[in-house]
Every structure is written in C-alpha cells, then in structure tokens.
Amino acid sequence: MKTFDFIETLKRFEKPVFTTTDIAKIINKNKNYTRLYLHRLKKREVIREIEKGKYALRDTHPFVLASNLIFPSYISFLTALSYYGFTTQIPRVIFLVASKTKKEIKFDNYSFKFA
Predict the structure, then answer these.
(1) Looking at the whole model, is its pTM more than 0.85?
(2) Which domains are assigned to the chain?
C-alpha cells in the first residue's frame, strides 16, 4: 500500500492511536510484514511510536494522543485549566484521569501522567 493511501485510510478511520493489529487489518498482511512496514514508516517519519505497539501519525496533537492511549480517560487538572485559559502556565506534563493505572509515558517534550 502506498504511503499516501495508508495515511488517508487511517484518517478515514478517525483513530489517532493505532496498534500493530489495526495496521495488519488495514494492509491485509501478517504480523511480521506489518512490523517491517511500520518500521519503514517510522524511519521515513510518517508515523511515531508512542509506546511499544502504539503508533500515531506525525502531526497528531499531544492532547489527542494522550486522551486516546487508554479508554476511557480524559485530560484534567492543570492541563485542562491551561487549555481553557484559566491559568497562564503552560504545562509540559499532560495529566489524565483514567479508570486504569498506567506508568508515565514520555513522548517528545511532553510527559503523560495517569491518575
């Protein structure tokens, strides 16, 4: 599958965070080929790996990524206050409330903390 077609297919699914299994279904290939395909896309910087087995397109906003790592979850605390303009501080830590606990994830210049 060509890269442009792949990106358009992902955008149509409206799933900002996807897994190896999701991609295997889209390109209709086995897991080994899918891993190679994802490796090549990462090398060309089309996608980025958030954590092991979870990927996102290069230009996806960190708030969108954070809220889609665990379902259900939502952005809260200082991060939400900053987003809505109730504070002038710009946080580098994105706080999330989720039904499951998860270790902190560092991604680019951001840190995702789950409470």
Answers:
(1) no
(2) 3-57 (1.10.10), 62-114 (no CATH)
